[in-house]
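Hi all, a correction to my earlier message: I attached the wrong file for Spermidine/putrescine import ATP-binding protein PotA. Here's the right sequence:
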Amino acid sequence: MSDQSSAPATAGVLPSGFAAANGANPAADNFVQVVDVVKKFGDTTAVKGVNLSVKKGELFALLGSSGCGKSTLLRMLAGLETVTSGKILIDGEDLATLPPYRRPVNMMFQSYALFPHMTVESNVGFGLRQEGVKKGELKDRVANALELVQMTRFAKRKPHQLSGGQQQRVALARSLVKRPKLLLLDEPMSALDKQIRQRTQIELVNILDKVGVTCIMVTHDQEEAMTMAGRLAVMSEGQIVQLGTPNEVYEYPNSRFSAEFIGSTNLFDGNVVEDEPDHVFVESADLPVRLYVNHGITGPLGMPVTISVRPERISLTRKPPEGVFNWGKGVVKNIAYMGGYSLYHVKLESGKTVIANMSSLALSEIDSPTWEDEVYVRWSASAGVVLTS
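and the right structure:
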């Protein structure tokens, strides 16, 4: 990982010892299994019957707001919390009776938890010394770990002599040097500023991919989860509400909660007035015309539904759109300039505010509307997703 005071990571040959230690076999679909896991704290149930399978070599994210149960689930994997009921297995081994120090798991904490009085290499080798690894092997493994995270030249420094990004590299090397079967990351980027965090996300993914370690990370940052993870689970009130790839969860939310939690969206409440195999029409008090979605749903006519339309799927025009569905008339009430694009807040005649993400190029083609200008919002039949819950 990099920051402003260190050289950027480059692709290279994996240091000897890492690939062999983690194996080169195809990933198993059920390498980590969470089966009907419940965690109670007195009368409070923090995790409610969670089931989850993580593939070998996968980087998986648990995403949710504070108090949703994601960190509690991570701590149960690490052995820092006991399971009230259910099972947790890694590579077929039930961890229920194993204390944290005997689990093939390593956890990288949000605070990094480096020893301030130790050098970088001493911090990285601490766990190996505790296990009684011989001096020659310990030295080689520490050197390999530091080479992997590009911190070899800082081996003799103390943590206070390093930047935040460099300290994170040391914490990662310390976690990987023990060759865990499962690496747990607790809010791994929270201590870094935004610019460094964005560069670090990709570099961390590249390092973990080289090592081949299975990784589960916890974050409340949607962008971080979608940038780093191959799959993610959205959690709410101790349960997984949606699981899939970042593209699946963003483009096809299965509930109003998922649609609002992942990214931003425009929601139109209404009732189904026509449902065919290839389309559905919805009437909403928010718009002067019907909403049209080019796929059918399962449910009776009159059923209340919500249509989710992402801001980047909505365009602005100064002229009335052609067609009899998926548009509304309004006035520009706010503009957030974001560089390559602008976010327009348009108040419709119904009183509802719609957000449209417009690229600078698209705006130049319609003579960039400004505050209090009258505009039309519109979107295609494929832009909306029907939510029934």
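Sorry for the mix-up. The first strand starts at residue 32 and ends at 41.
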